[in-house]
Amino acid sequence: MRTLNFEVLTLFPGLVEGPLNESILKRGREKGLLNVTVRNIRDYTEDKHKTADDSPYGGGAGMVLKPEPIFKAFEGLRAEYPGEELLTILLSPQGRLFHQKRAEELSEEKKRIVLLCGHYEAIDERVIDSLVDEELSIGDYVLTGGELAALVVIDAAARLLPGVLGDEESAYRDSFGAGLLDHPHYTRPAEYRGMRVPDVLLSGNHAEIEKWRSREALKATLLKRPELLETADLTDEDRKMLAELKNELEIGS
Ligand code: 4GY
Question: How do residues 118-165 score in pLDDT, each as one tens digit?
Fold first, then answer.
């Protein structure tokens, strides 16, 4: 059995810990498939006020995370895991956009993954130059800190680890696998407030059900996120269905 290892460096461990102790992430950790340690950057300060941030050189609003505690934290990590290579990721809006593809790669990463979370306005550039291998952004908006983004990265990678999702849940794993949106889902009752579940799903005809799901996934993608079709992994059958859908829905190109 293999374990995916994360180290989260943050000034606010409480922001990260809650979600790691619930639901699927909690179970993945209990099964030993996922290992996450959360460390407080403030524990690596050496002055009596435990100063982790300071005002920016050149002036301006906001505070900047000081380099010393972060460098000390890394020295602590290297001492704790001698000879181990670390992969250090800074969560920031300046990073490359995080995608399912990167989640898949990270779920197979052998190195211990250090997720460095900034807070306040910024982090001293010398930290980025010396310690950070990669900057990742979870989207084009600004958070109060990298903590929620770190959780997004952990969550997206962890659910791809074999054994983290139970049998009941594991089918979900494929829904973004081909780069398409998911098809609609229904559960009992077969009719609710006059709304019927599509007959094909009650038919027991598994070939027809799979065909319906593929078609609905293509339809949802075409209507909601058409740009995904340019990079999706489509079979010949998918392309045929897509052409039919475009005709029916009177969509050009
Ligand atoms: N977007 N994706 C993001 C973010 C907050 C100032 C550096 C994002 O990943 N992280 O907005 N992070 C900033 C706050 C310091 C991190």
Answer: 999 999 999 999 999 999 999 999 999 999 999 999 999 999 999 999
Catalytic-residue membership of 46: no
Check if 67 is active-site. Answer: no
Q: Does 174 participate in catalysis according to the annotation? A: yes
The minimum-distance atom of ligand 1 relative to the CA of 138 is 2
Q: pTM of this prediction?
A: 0.97
| Tokens 């997720």, residue located | 115
Beta-carbon contacts of 157 under 8 Å, excluding residues fewer than 6 positions away, are 4, 103, 106, 107, 109
Summarised one tens digit per residue, pLDDT across range 71-125 is 999 999 999 999 999 999 999 999 999 999 999 999 999 999 999 999 999 999 9
- Name the active-site residue from 56, 68, 93, 102: 93
User: Assign residue 50 a region: left if phi > 0, alpha if psi is -120 to 50, beta otherwise?
Assistant: left
To the nearest 10°, the Cα dihedral for 123, 128, 132, 133? 130
Q: Which of 103, 145, 156 is nearest to 15 (CA)?
A: 145
Q: Which of 17, 68, 121, 182 is catalytic?
A: 121
**Active-site residue (options: 39, 67, 147, 159):** 159
**Atom 5 of ligand 1: nearest residue by CA position:** 145
